């Protein structure tokens, strides 16, 4: 990995870790049936956060499918004004601008 490539991936890595933490927190809340925004979460509520975790892991591993999943959840986060909009928009920009950092399968690093 070249130095420039490593610094370009640094921002993506930081946001992917935020996505991972958010997804894990929501999965745990769903498994524990926590009441959130007036609704009691159930096991079915853990599906989308689990996909967020999977996307974050794929992004951290620089997989193309991880980039697509993180992009999908970034679009969803855009409606969460103001923090979600900033985080999702910035991640979308980084994922699109640095798409050359992601491989389809495994790649020697």
What is the fold's blueprint, element by element?
Layout: H1 3-31, E1 35-36, E2 39-40, H2 47-60, H3 64-77, H4 83-97
Antiparallel strand pairs: 1-2
Helix pairs in contact: 1-2, 1-4, 2-3, 3-4
Description:
By secondary structure, the protein is mainly alpha-helical. It has one domain. The chain has helices spanning 3-31, 47-60, 64-77, 83-97, and strands at residues 35-36, 39-40. A two-stranded antiparallel ribbon has the order 1-2. Strand 1 (35-36) and strand 2 (39-40) form a beta hairpin. The longest helix is centred in the N-terminal third of the chain and has 29 residues, at 3-31.
Short note summarizing the structure:
The protein is mainly α and 109 residues long.
Count, helices: 4
Please report which band the strand proportion falls in: under 5%, 5-15%, 15-25%, 25-35%, 35-45% or over 45%. Answer: under 5%
H/E element order: HEEHHH
Instruction: Report the biggest beta sheet as strand number plus sense, adding barrel if it closes.
Output: 2 strands, antiparallel
Total domain modules: 1
Order of adjacent strands in the largest pleated sheet: 1-2
The multimeric state of the shown protein is single chain
Radius of gyration: 15 Å
Shape: elongated
Helix content: 55-70%
What is the residue-mean pLDDT, rounded to a whole number? 91
Number of strands: 2
Which key features would you list for this structure?
elongated, mainly alpha, 109 residues, 4 helices, 4% strand, two-stranded antiparallel ribbon
């Amino acid at each position: 990995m070249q130095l420039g490539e490593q610094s370009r991936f640094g921002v993506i890595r930081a946001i992917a870790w935020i996505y991972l933490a958010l997804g894990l927190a929501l999965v745990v809340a769903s498994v524990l049936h926590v009441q959130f925004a007036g609704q009691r979460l159930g096991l079915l509520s853990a599906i989308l956060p689990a996909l967020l975790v999977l996307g974050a892991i794929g992004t951290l591993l620089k997989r193309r499918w991880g980039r697509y999943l993180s992009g999908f959840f970034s679009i969803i986060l855009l409606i969460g004004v103001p923090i979600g909009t900033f985080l999702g928009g910035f991640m979308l920009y980084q994922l699109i601008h640095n798409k050359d950092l992601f491989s389809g399968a495994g790649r020697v690093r």
